[in-house]
Structures are given as structure tokens and as C-alpha cells.
């Protein structure tokens, strides 16, 4: 028997139907706003709208009316991804307006482009004064510069302010080759935009979606989601470069590269700077369809992650607000594991766990387990990698199409491995060694898969676990 409800409590999901990319992540009039790509008529991709939710603490979200609909001639086939900034008491929205040159009908009956080259893309603008009602500008604000870009691959504007000017990066691809790039724009008033430059690095992906560029602790960070930038089952990935951005010329000096998440499904993240000066990142965990026939929703967001730098690389942590939802807890120290140890704790697959392991041998942690089968988190002392395997918690769901196993980069653990784990009914996020790396996975556990089991002979220096609860 499958769990009665697989909808997460703390990962934002659509009230019903389809969700993808986070959009317009912002702080406006004392509340966090998170928009998202949304199809309101069935749980499959179709003509994109902007769904909308708000929160005071990034954990409890209130669904609001649809913010943007494809109701203008220039966006009649979709309001694609974009961003939002607050200025002068208004929330300013920038999004990609879509028309199809050719269309077809999907297996679910939704209108879709005939192919990816059938998109006619421009950048468009809307605003709100109250966070509920939105007014669009009656024509696009930026057309694709034909000398450097392709209008079929021109989307996802991200806007921010530096000194007295506003800047925008838009995802794109090169005209003459299968190579991703971004186009950079500059404005003094959020209305009139001047093309500044094109930035590319030709060794990853054939188009760069969902770009984001910001300063963090003296470094410039460039996030992007390159199409066909990955390997194996997941071709589309989310990653970043550290470097330095020249605001006069629009040049980016690329330095270190890394993935934003080493698990499954993670894509199209977007960041914002909140009133506490935290750089917070939210990503989309891809689902192709509902987990099973009993569910009427598709897609979810990650928990909001605070970004910092450590040794020149991004470090990740879940926002502190989640601690307000901790309930019963259990703590144990210096636990000896003799082949197998079961953690006796009632949690209903919604919990936070901190685990510190003294590595003496190979180590395995099973979550969502029935004693024999579960989500396996293991550490191989020879390869020094954390491995996540979800084969035994997929349970025939077709929502998860990106494989069964992922591996972290090699770790320098000095015989000490630290894991911070958030389980939320049908999803798990694993933060390795104080957030050096993150591995996320959507899962589909059965009703009896609720146990937490440790296998191997490595002692547990510390275990802390809290049941997480949200009262509606």
C-alpha cells in the first residue's frame, strides 16, 4: 500500500495541476513572494501561467490567484520564466512572452510548440502595487538582438540593481553553433534597456536557461541551467561559476565551476536577497507527472537554501525558519553499530536529522525503509563518495525519470562524515559536511516504508532527529 498522502508539508507544491520553474522570488511589503511556472488545467505542461504563493517564513505558503495569464497577443502561448524586483513601492515583474510559429497537441491534450525552434520569444513587463493584482505593459520591452541571439532561445530574464543602474541577464544560445550564452542588458529606469554584452563559455550545454548573477562575500556568482550540459539520465542540470563581473563592459571572468545539487531532478533555481541580507536559493524538483493516480499535482520546490562561501565555493544551508516546526526529538551519542541499528523514533517520514559518523568501514543509512528495502545513503571509504540510491522507493512511479543512483564528488572527511537530512513524505534533501554538497531526491515510499536503519560497523558519534509538523 502506498502512503495515503504524498504531498510534502514544507516543499511548496501547486494546489493542483502542473508546476515548474521558480519565478519572481522576492520580498515585498513584509512577505516572501514566490511565483512559478504553472498550468492550471491539468497536471501536465501546457501554456505557461505564473502561479503565485506568499509566506512570512518561507515554510508556510499561502496560495494566491494566478498572477500572469497568456492573455496578450505577444504572450498568447505562454508567460515563461522571469524575475521580480521591488522599487518605489511596486513589485516589478520581468518575464518571457511566448508565441508559437507552429504548434501541436500533447498526449495530455495541451497545446505545445511543434518543436523547440517554434518559440517566438520577447521579454515583457508587468507590475503590482498590492501583490495581488498585476498590470502588464501592452507591448514587449526587449526583442531578441538578431545579430547575437536566436528568438527561439531567448528567455528567463533575471534583474538586479548595482549602484544606480539595473541589470538583466537573459538565457540564450549562439547563432552559429550549439553553444549556450547569456545576454546582458542595462537600464536606469527599469523601462528602457540597453544591450551590453554576450557572455559564453563553450564547453557546457547548447543553451543556458534561467541565468542568475549576484555578488556574495566579495565574489560574483553566476548560476545557470544548461540544456544538455549533463550526463547519463539527467541531461539538463543546474550549476554555477564563481568569478568576477565587469559592470562597465558586461564581461564575466570565469573561475571555479560546480554543481548546485548532486542528486536528482534539481533544475532552474532562482535566488533573492531578503531583508536580513541573506542570499536565498530555491530550485525546482522536476516531475514528469503525478507520483500516482491518486495525486492531482506535479512538481515541487526545494526547501529555501541560504548561500555562503567556504574556500571559494558555495556552501548551502536550509533557512533557520524550519527550526520553528521541530516537535518531538531524540538525541544519542556514541552509538555502536554492529552490522545493523534501527533508530526507534516516530516521524511519519517528515523529519530533520543530523548525523555524525566516524568512518571505520563502509557505511549505509536507509531512510523510508521496511527493514529490507529503502532509500540508501551510503559512503564508500575507498572512493570517499556519498552515494544515494532510490531504486527501492520508486515503486513503479513514472514521475521520476532521471535514474536511480547519484554520487557526490570525492570528500575529504578525515574519518568523519556529517549529514543533515530533511525528509518530507515524498522528497529528501541531504546536506553533506555542513552543506559542502547537497543531494536531493523525489521518492515514492509505500505505507510500510517508515523506518530509519543504519548498516555497517562505523560508530555514530552523534544523532539528533526532530519530527517536523505543520498545523493547517
Automatic annotation (TrEMBL):
Assigned EC number: 3.2.1.26
PROSITE patterns linked to this entry: GLYCOSYL_HYDROL_F32
Catalysis performed (reactions): Hydrolysis of terminal non-reducing beta-D-fructofuranoside residues in beta-D-fructofuranosides
Organism superkingdom: Bacteria
Pathway membership, UniProt: Glycan biosynthesis; sucrose metabolism
SMART domains recorded: Glyco_32
CDD domains: GH32_FFase (cd08996)
Subcellular location: Cytoplasm
Enzyme class: hydrolase
Keywords of the record: Carbohydrate metabolism, Cytoplasm, Glycosidase, Hydrolase
TM segment ranges: none
Family under the similarity heading: Belongs to the glycosyl hydrolase 32 family.
Name by which UniProt lists this protein: Sucrose-6-phosphate hydrolase
Amino acid at each position: 500500500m502506498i502512503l495515503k498522502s504524498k504531498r510534502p508539508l514544507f516543499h511548496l507544491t501547486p494546489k493542483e495541476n502542473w508546476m515548474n520553474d521558480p519565478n519572481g522570488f522576492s520580498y515585498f511589503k513584509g512577505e516572501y513572494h514566490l511565483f512559478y511556472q504553472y498550468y492550471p488545467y491539468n497536471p501536465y505542461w501546457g501554456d505557461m501561467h505564473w502561479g503565485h504563493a506568499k509566506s512570512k517564513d518561507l515554510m508556510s505558503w499561502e496560495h494566491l490567484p494566478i498572477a500572469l495569464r497568456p492573455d496578450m497577443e505577444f504572450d498568447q502561448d505562454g508567460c515563461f520564466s522571469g524575475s521580480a524586483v521591488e522599487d518605489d513601492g511596486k513589485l516589478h515583474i520581468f518575464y518571457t512572452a511566448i508565441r508559437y510559429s507552429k504548434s501541436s497537441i500533447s498526449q495530455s491534450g495541451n497545446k505545445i510548440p511543434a518543436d523547440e525552434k517554434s518559440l517566438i520569444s520577447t521579454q515583457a513587463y508587468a507590475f503590482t502595487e498590492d501583490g495581488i493584482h498585476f498590470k502588464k505593459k501592452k507591448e514587449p520591452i526587449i526583442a531578441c538582438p538578431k545579430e547575437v541571439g536566436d528568438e527561439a532561445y531567448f528567455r528567463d530574464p533575471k534583474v538586479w540593481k548595482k549602484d544606480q543602474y539595473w541589470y538583466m541577464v537573459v538565457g540564450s544560445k549562439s547563432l552559429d553553433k550549439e553553444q549556450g550564452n547569456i545576454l546582458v542588458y542595462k537600464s536606469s529606469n527599469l523601462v528602457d534597456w540597453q544591450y551590453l554584452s554576450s557572455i559564453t563559455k563553450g564547453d557546457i550545454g547548447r543553451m543556458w536557461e534561467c541565468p542568475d548573477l549576484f555578488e556574495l562575500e566579495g565574489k560574483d556568482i553566476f548560476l545557470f541551467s544548461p540544456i544538455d550540459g549533463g550526463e547519463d539520465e539527467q541531461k539538463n542540470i543546474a550549476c554555477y561559476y564563481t568569478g568576477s563581473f565587469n559592470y562597465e563592459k558586461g564581461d564575466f571572468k570565469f573561475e571555479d565551476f560546480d554543481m548546485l545539487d548532486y542528486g536528482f531532478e534539481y533544475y532552474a533555481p532562482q535566488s533573492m536577497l531578503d531583508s536580513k541580507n541573506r542570499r536565498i536559493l530555491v530550485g525546482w524538483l522536476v516531475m514528469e507527472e503525478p507520483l500516482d493516480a491518486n495525486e492531482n499535482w506535479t512538481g515541487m520546490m526545494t526547501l529555501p537554501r541560504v548561500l555562503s562561501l567556504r574556500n571559494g565555493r558555495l556552501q548551502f544551508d536550509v533557512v533557520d525558519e524550519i527550526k520553528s516546526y521541530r516537535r518531538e526529538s531524540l538525541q544519542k551519542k556514541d552509538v555502536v553499530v554492529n552490522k545493523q541499528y534501527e533508530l526507534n523514533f516516530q516521524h511519519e517520514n517528515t523529519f530533520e536529522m543530523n548525523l555524525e559518523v566516524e568512518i571505520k568501514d563502509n557505511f549505509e543509512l536507509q531512510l523510508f525503509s521496511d527493514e529490507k528495502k529503502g532509500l540508501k545513503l551510503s559512503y564508500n571509504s575507498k572512493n570517499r563518495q556519498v552515494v544515494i540510491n532510490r531504486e527501492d522507493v520508486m515503486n513503479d512511479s513514472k514521475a521520476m525519470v532521471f535514474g536511480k543512483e547519484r554520487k557526490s564528488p570525492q570528500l575529504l572527511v578525515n574519518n568523519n562524515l556529517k549529514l543533515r537530512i530533511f525528509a518530507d513524505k515524498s522528497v529528501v534533501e541531504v546536506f553533506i559536511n555542513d552543506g559542502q554538497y547537497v543531494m536531493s531526491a523525489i521518492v515514492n515510499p509505500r505505507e510500510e516504508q517508515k523506518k530509519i536503519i543504519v548498516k555497517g560497523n562505523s560508530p555514530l558519534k552523534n544523532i539528533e532527529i526532530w519530527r517536523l509538523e505543520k498545523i493547517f
